[in-house]
Amino acid sequence: MRKVMTRPRPRPTASRPPAGRPPARRDSRRPSAPRPSDRRPGTIPAQPPPHPTEVFAERLVLVLSGQRPMHWVARYVANTAFDDLARLAELRPLSANGHRPTVHRIGHYQPHPETYEVFARVATGPRLRALAFRLTLGPDRRWRCTAVETEPSRL
Lower CB density within 10 Å: C or N end of the chain? Predict the structure, then answer.
């Protein structure tokens, strides 16, 4: 998951000098505020929070690869999807020998304003696998996973 950084609050502009002049330094012990051109190249601007589909895809990949236990996502999974996820988690369809699975691409379709049908490509070593799930916004305004599927295992 990405870490979300918040923006600092804007300072009041009541004591702002005229636009044509640079601000004067009043205290020699205090450095002046850095200008936008003086920013360090390593600073990262604030990013919006990740989309719910991205968050759930990462969580499901960790559970289906055996890196996290089922109870880690239990409160985010509703109804019969919990049983499906428990059955799939026992099989560990996204685990690979020595390779950590990574989400390559995520797409979604929104059939209803409160529902996302999500499909993801997950890389486990040299192989790509499919993951599909449905997110529904509950009455408490929280997203819950209501269906989970992976590609059928080849025997």
Answer: C
